[in-house]
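My main concern about presentation is that the manuscript never shows what a single data entry looks like. An entry of this sort, consisting of the sequence and the corresponding backbone structure tokens, reads as follows:
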Amino acid sequence: MRHHNRSILMVLMVFLGGAMSGSEALAQARVDRTLSVQSGAASSLGDLPIATTNAITATTTTTTAPVTPAASTPSHNPAPSSHNRPSGSYASDAMGATILAKNADYETLFRINAPIPAGSTISNVAWRYGLSSKPVGFEAVLCRNNQQRCWNITNSASGNTSAFNGQDASQPFTLHYRVRGTGPLGPPAQGEMNQVIVTYDLPG
């Protein structure tokens, strides 16, 4: 009876051993399948582009050069010219026009009442004009020689300019008024006495 029991025990041990071997084999197969899947996934990820960022630190160096004091240079005043050109001038007065309507040109002629030597050239022009009022859109322009050259004096009822320098002094000046815009002007703008003073260099 004891021998029979020992035989049964040995059979059970063999059976259990075989079952354990089968379980280990099944577990090993599962591990192998898992590793094979992970290996394939890793391979596919390796096919994707990899962005690589290289951090570069830029260093800016500011070098301050020593400032060397500039050597003092004596100032030289230009020597006076040995020849000063003779000059002349004339003044011309004229009553300014009265502005009655918009978008019309009102001209005042400054006559030259004294002979100007041929070859004289302008060195300065001064002006003065007046109106009882300046309507909105008012413009005033000082011109020379039939408007060949003009200077806007809208915002300066008096002053002087070198804009005409070097030009023939024997040509007369004119003053032009204009009011730009639409609609009625309103009360007329009464002209007052105007003046130009032209200084010129004589030929030499």
In short: The radius of gyration is 53 Å. Helices lie at 2-46. The first strand starts at residue 87 and ends at 95.
